[in-house]
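Recap quiz, item 2
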Amino acid sequence: MSDKVIVSTKTETGNFFEDFSLGQSLVHATPRTVTEGDVSLYTALYGARFVVNSSDDFASTLGLPGAPVDDLLAFHIVFGKTVADISLNAVANLGYAECRFLTRLYPGDTVSTTSEVIGLKENSNGKTGVVYVRSTGTNQIGEKVIEYVRWVMVRKRDESAPAPDASVPELATEVSPETLTVPEGLDFSDYDPVLGGSRYLWDDYEVGECIDHVDGMTVEESDHMTATRLYQNTAKVHFNQFTESKGRFGRRLMYGGHIISLARCLSFNGLSNAAFVAAINGGRHVAPTFAGDTVFAWSKILACAKIDGHDDVGALRVQTTAVKDQPCGEFPGKLEDGKYHDQVVLDLDYWVLMPRRAQ
Amino acid sequence: MSDKVIVSTKTETGNFFEDFSLGQSLVHATPRTVTEGDVSLYTALYGARFVVNSSDDFASTLGLPGAPVDDLLAFHIVFGKTVADISLNAVANLGYAECRFLTRLYPGDTVSTTSEVIGLKENSNGKTGVVYVRSTGTNQIGEKVIEYVRWVMVRKRDESAPAPDASVPELATEVSPETLTVPEGLDFSDYDPVLGGSRYLWDDYEVGECIDHVDGMTVEESDHMTATRLYQNTAKVHFNQFTESKGRFGRRLMYGGHIISLARCLSFNGLSNAAFVAAINGGRHVAPTFAGDTVFAWSKILACAKIDGHDDVGALRVQTTAVKDQPCGEFPGKLEDGKYHDQVVLDLDYWVLMPRRAQ
Amino acid sequence: MSDKVIVSTKTETGNFFEDFSLGQSLVHATPRTVTEGDVSLYTALYGARFVVNSSDDFASTLGLPGAPVDDLLAFHIVFGKTVADISLNAVANLGYAECRFLTRLYPGDTVSTTSEVIGLKENSNGKTGVVYVRSTGTNQIGEKVIEYVRWVMVRKRDESAPAPDASVPELATEVSPETLTVPEGLDFSDYDPVLGGSRYLWDDYEVGECIDHVDGMTVEESDHMTATRLYQNTAKVHFNQFTESKGRFGRRLMYGGHIISLARCLSFNGLSNAAFVAAINGGRHVAPTFAGDTVFAWSKILACAKIDGHDDVGALRVQTTAVKDQPCGEFPGKLEDGKYHDQVVLDLDYWVLMPRRAQ
């Protein structure tokens, strides 16, 4: 045993803005086998009730090999792996686009994530820049599970580092419904809406319909930290009260994805048969959330689309707004001046797949 | 994308008293595959130690195909499904009776629940009524898993709605021990009480014996909400601090079943070899419980019964009383005037199965 | 039903100092099948990211049958079983030694624990004594999983009970690296350090190197109680706020093993490829921890050892110090006078196995 002290440099500090280059590929650490244990925890964290994810037997009546893992659980796991490389030095998570759910995960599948840098733009203050990455989650046989773009504002390590040529990718404002992927083998012909929790199917929704999901869920520190650790997401602001107590908010910030999942699970009341998330067109964390907040949600149907070659499946484009400490009977959202109602925390625009009535 | 706003009517508001009719059948939503993940969470929520549920190997020495799911976990899942249809507008959960555990659940089994309305009686105030339902949990091959009666006081939507003919079912005050079901394949001949945690078997208990279970468990908000979400129980009062802060108690109410499971797990110390819950004769949530409460429990042996055709198995009728913020050395319970000691929160009367000594 | 009250004596009160005898064997209750559910909970409790435990596919590229259960999860489960017999009446958990991880657990394995009393020494005050036990966790086919010695100070029931002949075992201050066990089938030749989370392998570490693991994790009551219940550890001080509020600290004490796991998971940043814990040389809970504490950690490399017959595997002897509410950039630890820095809570000395570069 030695008394000498050598200060190690092996601790990872994450990438800073100048560490990224256009076209750069990143292989993220820690592939993860998803299990029934993760599914149970997801249920316990959000009270998820979408029947396709709840019952192997029900799922098998739809032609699936068993109950697939909730799409957003898959998303959070894929996303979690990117944090150490992409957003450890992020000032802000600015947006998502072009997120597509391509292959469903089942317990036992192993998922890993890679990213490509598709845009870089230094901010005029010279202290930060925006990094655009396309991240891809892949299963153990190489199938793409989820693909999405996000952009984050990242600190520079050294403000004197030269700015890269600005390159901002053109991103679709909507995932085109023609490109939505129906889960392999899915046949909704025998879907039982009673077991699904509602008699309303795709045919019953109309554009402009606004649904107050009514229920509210209060989040505890233990809840959001448990979720975020389950996703192996290591962003520091979620876990460390000692440091955060001296920070901007004085307390731990909740992982934005926790709110996405809460909002989706609250949306069950009114969208019970929205069995799958097929795409996320865009998402914005309008305001931070903290332990003690009670989250409510409401949704607006933005579009209804048929799916080519699938008479039994329809897609709904849904905008779900999550709001804290404010019931949603009056649909608090974006105001006329483009700002949001004070209590809004999330504005999420996505496609879901829902059974259609027999034609 | 459209700017028009159509207020949706698709949100479920649950059934009100006048929505129920005698003989009505309800098929509840969200069948659920129970997994090893649920079992781990149950252990983590209550510290359950009953060996039959803990070890596949131990269970297989008893002739079982593996460790069955804890009987009360099965109960909570079966129960959770009924909430959206039966008790979303309940004022009070009045009682349980005739609850029988008929087939054990194993990880991988899928359970679904149906209910039949077996009684209706409007209250004299014209604002509420009592609904009696017999609910049945069934596994994927159609075997009855659990059957029980509960009655709840439900609000009327419209006070002017006519009262139904009053019909109150006759309910047994006790599940007759002759009708208790021994798990299929169970053979306690090789039961090892050392591994079970106590040398005491069925033969060692006597009627009137009162057992102080000694230990106490403090419940956090995160704990009871996690449990209740795991059971997909959506009763609003458990989750929404924003609304409850304005309500009767000023805070979230704990799911009564959480206390039942806590009491059962505390009862391990003194009833370690009470391997199975075979029936619940009756149960009463005497007072509400809240986060921060420390739950203690004690039990009284009400009866000892042999099981016909099973020399290796005996039944004990147990009354377990859960008490908050009060140790149970003096057995606080029902007082002479029929009221309860101030700190009592649960009075549960049930049958357990325990190994007998070799004859 | 009877009105007579018979006060039961069946509640276990645990062993007191005079109940132990040298050479005594104890078979602990509640064998436990470890499942994927436990693994998910472990991830959710600590944010564990060691890749060998995270991915079945990754583990199988190393010649393993799948992802083994985290070594410390196995330790906590083995340890938990001993509490009811060894330390229910403990005043203090004094130390660990000679802890060896011999066979890895995989989901589906069942573990049980036995202990042998290897030392006894009454304290001069006549009120307490030190009990030394060697505990062994065994899997369902009789293979030793974990073996360790711990010693605890245990109360006497009756102060007038005669003192046993003092017998203090000689314990190794270090598990000799020659005796470390490499997991069966393990071949690190194809280990991918990128997926492991760091480019640093065994060859890159040097004796005296001190690593600040940087991150901090705040612990909630729900978190440490959930963990401790998962391990079926029933030590009263962790769970009962009613009683503890009147005790020495006024609040619930955290299970020391929770801090060990937190420290190990924080050590990922700097020791990402420390795939296995092979042995624990010694450990000391320097100060108690409570909910609300933020735990940081740093590690010092005490020794580097090759493993005979395994060119692909190296062992590092690591001293990890956990500290509360204090970042570790200045490596707070043992001071010159032999005392510890005020904020230190854990001093753990252990061996890890890490891949070596191709020779």
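Chain A has one domain: 17-157+174-355.
The radius of gyration of chain A is 21 Å.
End of item.
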